[in-house]
Write a structure and sequence with these properties.
By secondary structure, the chain is of the alpha+beta class. It is built from one helix and ten strands; from the N terminus they run αββββββββββ. The model has no long low-confidence stretch (mean pLDDT 84).
């Protein structure tokens, strides 16, 4: 009968403990990489969430302008500071208060949130608000008023949507962008 050497048994026990320690270290390192990836992914999704929501609002304005030019119908994009939302509607019943809008006139709606905040609206005639409902109306001839919508993401970074009534362009910019005010008719030679 062969009797195992005591030194041999110690080596097996030591080797078994070393393997367990290596496995624990590998699991720990993998867990750290996974947690870093999750944190980076959440940050990217948050930024993407704001950008995608802001781009949705821009597309809403673009859709209203394009549809009005092609069909001759009138539309309005409503920014409601009280309800903290926005809406696109086809104007079929005339200019009415928000509470009197018919359900069948509503084309699309959206909600502002902590991650997608509206700060104020400034029209190109110099009037502005951050506390009531505003209406951007568009018909076949173009936008009734141009202006800008100031937005903030969850980190307080400012963005601006410019509604240009002269060239019908609707664009999203980073930062606080100035709007170009239209020239009075007398300065244009009329």
């Amino acid at each position: 009968m062969i009797v195992p050497d005591s030194n041999c048994l110690m080596k097996v026990k030591c080797r078994g403990g070393a393997v367990l320690a290596e496995i624990i270290m590998i699991v720990f390192i993998v867990a750290m990489f996974v947690s870093l990836a999750i944190v980076n992914l959440e940050g990217a999704l948050d930024r993407e969430n704001f950008k995608s929501r802001a781009n949705e609002l821009v597309k809403l304005f673009q859709m209203a302008g394009t549809s009005a030019a092609e069909t001759g119908k009138r539309y309005e994009v409503i920014i409601d500071f009280v309800q903290n939302n926005y809406m696109l509607r086809e104007i079929t019943t005339g200019l009415v208060a928000v509470e009197d809008i018919l359900e069948e006139e509503i084309i699309d709606t959206g909600q502002f949130s902590e991650r997608f905040q509206v700060s104020y609206v400034l029209f190109d005639d110099g009037t502005w608000t951050n506390s009531k409902t505003v209406f951007f109306r568009v018909g076949k001839a173009g936008w009734q008023w141009g202006g800008k919508i100031s937005l903030f993401d969850e980190n307080g970074k400012e963005y601006t949507i410019i509604i240009n009534r002269l060239n019908r362009m609707i664009e999203l910019y980073e930062g606080d962008v100035e709007i170009k005010k239209p020239m009075p008719p007398e300065e244009m030679g009329f």
